Amino acid sequence: MQVIDYSTEISIKYGELSHFIQWCTNNCTGKWSVKILEEAGNMPGSYNFIFEKEIDYMTFIVWKK
C-alpha cells in the first residue's frame, strides 16, 4: 500500500514558526511534521509542512491564507 504525504512549502518570518507548530499540534488529527529548508533570519525562512491526512493538509492551507 502506497502512503501519500500531503505537503506544502511556505515562507515564515523569524519568530513565527512556533505559531504554525502550535496550530498543527492543536488542530491536526493525523501525523504531521515540519522540515526546515532554510532557517529564518533577516529574511523569512522556508519550511515544508507534511501531513498524513488530506483533511489536515487542506485545513492548514485554508488557515494559513
Tally of discrete structural domains: 1
Unreliable sequence segments? none
Q: For the largest sheet, list the strands in their spatial order.
A: 1-3-2
Q: What is the helical fraction, as a range of percent?
A: 25-40%
What profile does the largest beta sheet have?
3 strands, antiparallel
Determine Rg (CA atoms, Å): 12 Å
Give an account of the 3D structure:
The structure is a single chain. The chain is an alpha+beta fold and 65 residues long. The protein has 2 helices and 3 strands; from the N terminus they run βαββα. The chain has helices at residues 17-27, 54-64, and strands at 6-12, 32-38, 45-51. The chain has a 3-stranded antiparallel sheet with strand order 1-3-2. The longest helix is centred in the middle third of the chain and has 11 residues, at 17-27. The mean pLDDT is 93.
